[in-house]
């Protein structure tokens, strides 16, 4: 047996994704907290919906960019493209998967620059009763922090103890825990759907990788974005409480699962594979 050539490029991809995750993590929780603290109560659902809608448009453009990169040969710029005899429809074709990382990385870096010009401290919110209460709470917390020793001087055991207590309190909230379980189920199904649907389209319908990514980005994600935005508008119009929003989310999720069950009635015949669907004879 000949030793196959090995590459350590996966380490750079792993580290790059870790850094990207660290940089992206504060945007959603801090952004939603900022909107909840400084926006009017009836406008928060719309603003949060806009935030999530934009977050869903990103993967859509990512699929479209992936479709474009998949049409280009993997070694573009290093080999003579005229000497390549295979086409994107060939199973041996490998697209320029690495090009998307470069384009997305440069775009993320440029979009992060404006954050450097944000003020260190935010302006005092509008003089509403809710804003006054929340701002006063923040001021009290800030005064309390001055009496607490810096984080560096605190022992790790105390930090871990506080973290465990906070985690227990959050998970003890039945509504939040139920919402967390529902989110896990939804994202698990959604991730699997996006992961395997392009490969399914390639195998069952004979589509190229480029066209499969293009169709996924064009048909799957825009409806989700529209749904998130419409949900925010409905919550704003009817001024739903937490219980009302929970009932609304349950009803919509139930209908979504009912429609999803229709996938079981749509399919194609299995391909003829020797030793699996037919005998070798």
Automatic annotation (TrEMBL):
<dbReference type="GO" id="GO:0015347">
    <property type="term" value="F:sodium-independent organic anion transmembrane transporter activity"/>
</dbReference>
<keyword id="KW-0812">Transmembrane</keyword>
<dbReference type="Pfam" id="PF03137">
    <property type="entry name" value="OATP"/>
</dbReference>
<feature type="transmembrane region" description="Helical">
    <location>
        <begin position="214"/>
        <end position="235"/>
    </location>
</feature>
<dbReference type="GO" id="GO:0015125">
    <property type="term" value="F:bile acid transmembrane transporter activity"/>
</dbReference>
<feature type="transmembrane region" description="Helical">
    <location>
        <begin position="95"/>
        <end position="118"/>
    </location>
</feature>
<dbReference type="GO" id="GO:0043252">
    <property type="term" value="P:sodium-independent organic anion transport"/>
</dbReference>
<keyword id="KW-1133">Transmembrane helix</keyword>
<keyword id="KW-0813">Transport</keyword>
<keyword id="KW-0472">Membrane</keyword>
<feature type="transmembrane region" description="Helical">
    <location>
        <begin position="176"/>
        <end position="194"/>
    </location>
</feature>
<feature type="transmembrane region" description="Helical">
    <location>
        <begin position="247"/>
        <end position="266"/>
    </location>
</feature>
<comment type="similarity">
    <text>Belongs to the organo anion transporter (TC 2.A.60) family.</text>
</comment>
<keyword id="KW-0406">Ion transport</keyword>
<dbReference type="GO" id="GO:0016323">
    <property type="term" value="C:basolateral plasma membrane"/>
</dbReference>
<dbReference type="InterPro" id="IPR036259">
    <property type="entry name" value="MFS_trans_sf"/>
</dbReference>
<dbReference type="GO" id="GO:0006811">
    <property type="term" value="P:monoatomic ion transport"/>
</dbReference>
<keyword id="KW-1015">Disulfide bond</keyword>
<protein>
    <recommendedName>
        <fullName>Solute carrier organic anion transporter family member</fullName>
    </recommendedName>
</protein>
<feature type="transmembrane region" description="Helical">
    <location>
        <begin position="44"/>
        <end position="65"/>
    </location>
</feature>
<dbReference type="InterPro" id="IPR004156">
    <property type="entry name" value="OATP"/>
</dbReference>
